[in-house]
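Record now logged underneath.
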Amino acid sequence: MDFIVSGDFIRVILAVTGVAMLVFTVMSLARRMMNETFCLAWSVLSLALILAGILVHPTHWTENISIWGLVIIFIIFFGLLYAGFFVSTEISKLARQNQELAIQVSLLNEENMRLLKRVSQMADVDVRDI
């Protein structure tokens, strides 16, 4: 109980959370689940959490927050982190699909123009008249 009251518990949780976030960020970049911009932002946030775990020394926090209040704060904090990470991966996935769709549309437009030129050559008609 003295470990929790001293504030070292909060420091350990912050540092471990930062390291875990950094690992998940690198893994999601390697698996192409998240694009580079989001990975950079999450890496900076995880490094900030690691630094906060190292540098911040909370003292007398038990005078203001009970242990159950701290548990609720941690649950909300981890829920927000998970939701943000989930939204980042989904936005990255949609951006990748949008880029693939744009490439496919471009290829279809190019093929359409080639076919129109071929038809116009065969019928001796201007492409703009079709």
User: Anything to note?
Assistant: The chain has four helices and no strands. Residues 106 and 112 are 10 Å apart (CA to CA). The two ends are 82 Å apart (CA to CA).
